[in-house]
Structures are given as C-alpha cells and as structure tokens.
Amino acid sequence: MESAHVQFHSCFTEFDISLFKTGKHYRLYDKMGAHPMSLNGVEGCYFAVYAPNAEKIFVVGDFNHWKHEGYMLYSRWDGSGIWEGFIPGVTHGMVYKYKIFPYNYGRIRLKADPYAVKMEVPPRSGSIVWSMDYSWNDSAWMQMRQQQHAHSSPVSVYELHFGSWKRNLSENRPLSYAEMKDVLVDYLVDMEFTHVEFLPLTEFPYDPSWGYQVSGYFAATSRYGNPEELMSLIDQLHQAGIGVIFDWVPAHFPADDFSLATFDGSCVYEHPDRRKGFHPDWNTLIFNYGRPEVRSFLISSAFFWMEKYHADGLRVDAVSSIVYLDYSRKEGEWEPNHLGGRENLDAISFVKECNTALYEAFPGIQLIAEEATSFPLVSRPVDHGGLGYGMKWMMGWMHDTLNYFKREPLYRKFHQNDLTFSIMYAFSENFMLALSHDEVVHGKSSLIGKMSGDEWTKFANLRTLFSYMYSHPGSKLLFMGSEIGSYGEWNFTWQLDWHLLEFAPHLGLKELVKDLNSLYKSIPALHIYNFSIEGFEWIDASDRENSILVYKRNGNSDHDAVAIICNLNVNPHQKYKVGRSKHEEWKLLFNSDHKKYWGSDYKIQSLVSTQDQSFQSWPLYLEVDIPPLSVTMYTIRPVDAEDKSDGSGSKSSLTKPNGHKS
After folding, report:
1. Active-site residue 281, yes or no?
2. For 165, how many CA atoms within 13 A lie in the half-sphere containing its CB?
3. Fewer beta carbons within 10 Å, N or C terminal of the chain?
4. How many domains does the chain divide into?
5. Alpha-carbon distance 149 to 600, whole Å?
6. Taking a C-beta distance cutoff of 8 angstroms, is the pair 252, 321 a contact?
C-alpha cells in the first residue's frame, strides 16, 4: 500500500540498526522521533518509531485533521521493527501521534511518540514536532565541572520540586522556566548550595506522582514552558556556578493508554511476565531490561539529558526495585533467576552498562543511586565489581538520625548508637546524606515537626541536626522548605511558606544552612575526605550520660583539621574536658547556638588550649564550654608546649528565648 503523503526516507545506516538491535545505540534521539528537515528542497518532518508488532502505522495530527488516510509510514526491510518516512509540510510546533494497527487485528492504538522532545500540557497527550535550537554560554562551567564533581570536592544539593517552590500567586500557577531563572539562581547562590536537583522534569501525566511516573523520556514537561527556556535556566545556573542534577526514573512507567504500555499491541517496553513487568507498589509497568531495544531506549534517554540539556548528573530513582526480583513481592509472586538468587540479572547488567557508558561519554558528570538496601558496591566502579554509580543515598543514616531527634533529650542517652553506628559503614559506599522530599510527606511531618520539645527546643534540635549532618562524612542533600523550617508537610499544589522568614526562628534557621554551606565549601577538612576513613576520627563517642559526641574531621595536614562537639541534650556545660594526645589550640569556627540563628547565645570561649595534665587515658586535655542543644566546630592548631596559649576567655550564662534558663 502506497502512502500518498509520505515519502520514503531513512536516517538509519546499517550500523545504526546493528547497534539498536544489540542494545548499544546510545543516541537514538538523533534517529527516532520527529525531525523537522528539508528533503530535496521541501520542508517537512522525518518520523521514525519502533513497533515490531505493528501491521500498519500512520502519523496523524493537526496537519491532517487527525485522519490517517495517506499518511502511513514505511516498514524497514531489515526486521528491525522500525517504521519511518518523510511527510512534507509538517513543521515545527505541529501536534501528532502514531495510529498503530497491530497484527492479528488487535485494538487500534493512538500513541504518543516515545522519542518526542516536546509534548502537550497534560491532560492533553499529543507529541509536538520541535526543532530544539539553543546557543549555550556555559563553556567555562562544562570545562571545569569534572573538578566540581571530584570525590574530594564539596557537593551540597538543594532538592526542588519545580511546581511548588514559588508560584505566581496572582495567576495561581507555578513559575515558568523563564520566571524561575529570575529568582532561583540568586537564591541558590545566596544560600551557597553547589547543586540543584530537580524532581523529574521528564513529561508525566499525573501531577500527584510528582513526575515519577514518566510518559516522555525525552521531553521536558511543557507545564513550565518550552525546551529552550529550560535550557536557558540551566545555562544561567551553570554560569552562576551551580550544577544541575536531574531525577531520572528508569525503574517503571505508567500504564496510560496513550503512552508506552502495550505500545503496538505487544509488550514492547514492559516485561511480558507480570512477575517482572508489573510494579505492585505503584500500579506501574517495569521495563524489560533484557530486551536490547529497550536498553538502547533507556540509555539514550540518559544520554539525551546530558547532551542536549547539559545536565551534570542523574539521581536514579528506586534502584532497589530495579535490581531485585522480589522487591515488594510476597513469596510465590516472583521467580528466582537461573542461579537461584533474587537479583534481576538483566537489570543489573543494564545498570552497569548504562553507568559505564555515561561516565565514558560525559566526563565530569555524577550518577547518584537511591538504593535502600545493603546491595553491595552500588557506588563502586563496574570493573571493580560494582554497579558503577558515583554516589548512593545513605538511607540508614537518615532513618537512624531522624528517629534519634524525635526522642526527648532525656532518653537520648539510651540511643546514642543511633548516631554513632553510621560511622561503622560510612565508607563502604560513597554516601550522600539526604533529607529528601520522601521524609516530609504522607503523614511523616515536616523536619521541624519531627523534632521533640517546645518551639525553642524544636529549632535548636533542627539546627543541631543540620550542623551534625554537615560535619558528618559524605555529600549533602536537603529538600526545599526544610531550610526555612516549614511547619506543614510538603504540599505539591502550593508554594513554600516563604512568609515564615518574617519570624526570627525561621530566618535564623535559613542563615544557619547558608553558613553551613559556606563552611562545607571553604573548609577542606569538611569535604576533602567525604568518602574516606582518613577524614574522620572519634575523639569521644562514649559520653552517653550527657549525650555528647566529639569527633574530628581531617584535612591534608594537622593544620587543616576541625574538631566538632555535638551536644544532643538541653543541658549546657562549662569546662567540659576533652582528652588530647598533643598540645593544641582550638579556635571557634562555628556555633549553632549563636544568636543570629535564634540560639540561646550561651557564652563560650573562642580560643582554648590543652593543659599539661592527663585525663582518662589521654596525656593532655582541654576545657571547652558547650551550649545547650548545639554543634560547635573548632579549627585545630598544633602548638609547641612552650608556646601554647592559656586559652582563657569569658564565660557567662544567658536566658534562652521563651524564658528557658541555660
């Protein structure tokens, strides 16, 4: 059957087809989808789609009044399952879908293009022909980002949901990509975060999924504008020295009829075995990771965001559900692999191939796994037996720490191991300490709401938690709103409670996070050994009775070291003894109890020195004053015994806000 309005044309070489069929084509976006072009002097659009079970495929859209007659694509002769053709007159901005007639006279399907780079604003679901055209101005950033992502560099991430950070209140809508550029860049620079991580901006049909049920793996959501406007936002972030991480979801996809599900009447993208192809937690479908064409599709999606949008990294969602066959499944609902294990071997092979290919193609990027189990070597190189991610979220630290800070200080002495245990495994992976969106929704309360005590104590607890987090080994991630102490859970339909910054406790918390970011970036000891035991040393983890932890972060020399004292109780201390092995001076660097943070401003010495007396098993000790519910940090300077200062200073107690006596 000839197609009256479609001319045969192919952008595929035999080598392209070979790569595609073996799962090795990583830039399918250059071939598949809709590509406006000129053919023999005629303007039009080349279309290519993979549908191996189709008998006929037509392109329909606003250019032909959604009638398929005469607009049938050509099936390639090589058995690749690709349909293609050039349609004159179809140009930039036109809406289209594929009308697919399956073999065996199955139900006709009207499908969005899996490779579309732009889609209609939901609930409409058409694909849009789009010529992405943007001139980047971030060459300086791109050339130096490898240094920014070195494991010895500070990485402090602000996790952000685009539609609910700030809104246009007069029009009751989210800010656009263009509008966000005017406010977000300045905010991140002022707060001194190194990166922003966007919850998924790939197109998605259902707002309450927050973007985690993806229908367009190559399309930035049109809710906030067009592709070039998002590129411009990323460009501005890069020029301001801010890296951009995209949340990427290769674990599952929604079963909406217009999208990937049973694309051509068969299981093209999802695994045909429901035990491997259906996700019981989210009622979604799971990719068939063993199918070469699906691997090419997914890896091409990851490449697309790196190449076309200059993304600096991907945070990969739900890795645990990818690598385990029995994830969220009861006995009898899953089948072991051929070795008798519970690992999804096809998925693990895909993950390793994807990570290896990305790091080779885009030096300087960072790949971060949300993986919640003890799966080994998640953030170790593939050639060392690992999965090949660069970092992994430290879920155990997050759960233990939040559980600890929920407890009343009186009972914390019985649970000090909740905080000390993380160091036992802190260097088994390259961990990112994440206080993410998942912790402030679904009845879990906001971070400030999780803290125990009255108002002053809650804020003191949260200041202490953040300060402890920033002094703990690992990179950092904080979800938006946590830095201002939002009382309510995150509401994806509205903006953050920015009005809270009119009140001292919230403004003080924001200033604390800003200063912690500054310290983390500027003090090498706080980041240079983020993932190495060389960077951490316990001084005293045994004072359970007072709920005090004392530890040291090491830089490249003794002169670069920082001492940290965490007081996890409401009781202040004067002349608290800390054992030392060498003569030192400690100079106050940071105090989370400072009045600028709405602390009690309990007076402490700014300079203390060791004394020539033994203490416990230590040959020397120094005396420090410790504010209530606080973290204090000191720079350490080794000194000769004859030169050491006496470290004297003034001390006094103050009344806390709300009448609490220190």
Report:
1. no
2. 24
3. N
4. 3
5. 37
6. yes
**Judging by beta carbons within 10 Å of its beta carbon (0-12, 13-18, 19+), is residue 284 exposed, middle or buried?**
buried
Residues 108 and 212 grouped into a single domain: no
Residue 189 CB coordination number (10 Å): 13
Residue 197: in which H helix or E strand, if any?
strand 195-198
**Alpha carbon of 353 to those of 202, 270, 653: distances in Å?**
22, 19, 60
Q: 177-191 and 227-239 are packed helices; what angle lies between their axes, rounded to 10 degrees?
A: 20
Q: Which of 21, 3, 31, 23 is nearest to 78 (CA)?
A: 21
Helix (H, G, I), strand (E, B) or coil at 649: coil
The enclosing domain of 119 has a CATH number of 2.60.40.10
449 domain-assigned: no
Summary count for the chain: helices (H), strands (E): 14, 30
- Residue 36 is part of which domain span? 14-128
The pLDDT assigned to 661 comes to: 32
User: Residue 640 has what pLDDT?
Assistant: 78
Active-site option among 317, 400, 483, 515: 317
Cis bond upstream, residue 657 (ω within 30): no
Who's near 222: CB < 8 A, 6+ residues apart?
118, 119, 120, 121, 128, 203
201 and 243 together in one domain: yes
- Six token digits for residue 510: 């924001």
Asked about 317 being catalytic, the answer comes back as yes
104 shares its domain with 199: no
Beta-strand pair 54-61/573-580:
unpaired
Beta bridge partners of 160: 198
The residue from 179, 197, 370, 439 that is catalytic is: 370
pLDDT (0 to 100) of residue 651: 39
The type of residue at 556 is N
Which of 94, 128, 162 is a domain's end point? 128
Same domain, 120 and 177: no
* Shared-domain flag, residues 242 and 340: yes
Instruction: Give the domain-ending residue among 79, 94, 128.
Output: 128
- pLDDT of 656: 37
- The pLDDT score that the predictor gives to residue 100 is 97
Same domain? 91 vs 158: no
Helix 455-471 and helix 504-522, axial crossing angle in degrees, nearest 10: 10
Is 299 in the same domain as 372?
yes
pLDDT in tens, 95-108: 999 999 998 778 99
Q: Helix, strand, coil % (nearest 5) of the chain? A: 30, 25, 45
State the virtual CA torsion across 244, 515, 396, 326 in degrees, nearest 10.
-20
Q: How far apart are CA 31 and CA 39, in angstroms?
A: 15
**H or E segment and range at residue 624:** strand 620-626
Query: Comparing C-alpha atoms, which of 420, 414, 547, 546 is closest to residue 473?
Result: 420
Q: pLDDT under 70 in the chain at which residues?
A: 1-3, 641-662
